[in-house]
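haha ok so turns out i had the wrong file open the whole time. this is the CORRECT one, sorry everyone. sequence first:
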Amino acid sequence: MKNIYLAAALLVTLLPACDDGLAELNENPDAYSDIVPEFLFTKAQLDAVDISYFGTAALTIGGSMQQFATYKEVPAAGDKYFNDGYSKSYFSEAYPTAVNQIQEVIRSVSENPEDVNKLSVARIWRVYIFHHITDLYGDVPYTEAGKGSIEKIYTPKYDEQSFIYEDMLTELEEAAHALDPSQPTFGNADLMYGGSVEQWEKFAYSLMLRLGMRLSEVDATAAQNWVQKAITGGVILEDSDLAAIEYVDGSQIDSRNPIAWALMRGDYLDPQNEDNVEGGKLAKTFIDHLKNTGDPRLNVFSVLWVQSPTGEYVADTATALQQGMPNAAFNSKPADFASYSEPNPNTILKYDAPLLVLTNAEVHLLLAEAAVRGWYNGDAAEAYESAVRAGMRQWSHFGSGGEIATNRIDAYVNSNPFPAAGTLEEKMEAIHTQKWVSLFLDEYEIFAEWRRTGYPDLVPTNYPGNLTGGSIPTRFVLPDSEETINGPNFLEAVSRQGEGNLLTSKVWWDK
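then structure:
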């Protein structure tokens, strides 16, 4: 044993002398030893919108918000409130990918004053990443997150959500002010705006508007302050400024729309098979609302697979055929399973469909709410109508199957006017039920706004053995690994929030 250590020591001593350039042979010529911020920012954008969509967004939130349904028990995290496992995945996936990536981008562009736009955009995108995490879980690692590689912080503290929100809003304000059109940007490495400083500024203020309004029930004074700052700064109002990431169909999975890929792989892969992977369909509550209001988006979102004379199944968008599956109604495949509607393969399930990150439809609805609250001197009815029209036009980005004729939009607007003479609650219900439809596929924001406002008015399910006592989940559950790996910080946060690490716990702003 002693001779082995002596030989190893000698080898180490001789290595520098006999290197003679051999070290260079061990270097990968196709790899970078230094961070390339442009590449890493692109990756941070892609990963931020591709975090566990099927389990967390479709199954957990989509089911509980009654836009998706399933007859099976295992995937019924939101349909039957039957497991909390899927809710843990977002946390586990976000930190090693998007959080770490954007933190490294910020570090790499913080020294050179000419990188001010890259730094500002990275700070804005970091807020986008973290607002989803904290909205789902409440208190989370924030100030110390993503600092393992340099500062060796491997067990980051959990910051209080009230502090996280204050800091995120300050970050947006400072980053927006720092943007400088005379300095370089990420250019084509920026998949949303191609480096446009003007559009990133609008995105920052629109995100500020979203987050400011999130405080409405917990701190109305702060909410009004941030909402008015955002409106003054300038928000996304035109179709041309909505934030979206484009994708292409091809052999590379990473180039495909992650929502379409997740839904196809997770449930709807074989339309010629009457059983889906996880027994999923579109939900009755969602389809009934679209039909009852004469909403032309029904034909954009939904199809029924009908058998043709040749025996193949074809996607039929006819309004009369569409039927949603009731949530938590079955524990085995219903005999009429094939009669329930599924996502449209020519829009929702297209691999080359864009992913809408933040739209002018949402911004106009936020402005309508601000007007109703007296925080904005615009007309609530006009903002509402602008939102409805933009929310219908946006689906044209999904191809010809998403185009809605102007006369159909006009007919819907005329049949579903804003209740300008109604009560505050009637106005809020109209705004947020519209948001529930307009933001379809952005389940995270739908879930957040339902918790903040209580709209749309959803009737909970009470499936035997559910984990919530028959109430709709209000928070995601932190993964079990946190108690093992980061125990003291995790336990402190759970204790501080006071309701346990449960689906029925609430985040700070949810009153």
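The longest helix spans residues 116-137.
again sry for the mixup
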